[in-house]
Request: fold
Amino acid sequence: MRYIMGIQVGDREHEAIRVQELLTKHGCIIKTRLGLHEAGDSQCSSRGLIIIEFLPNKEEEILSMEKELALLESVVVRQMVF
Reply:
């Protein structure tokens, strides 16, 4: 199966460092990572979206990462499985 996770960070200013720490902690199971956020000429958005594709057969580690991310106040986590 292919596991894809979407991570919406609602308050990048306060949560980005902790999200980055968790992604680094679980970095060995991440195959692809894409970060998206709104940006204008003079300002970045306070919200961001990270899309992650995981290596196969890492379900337990993915669940652990999801639980840790969900503890962060402004973070919303969703998964897609193919």
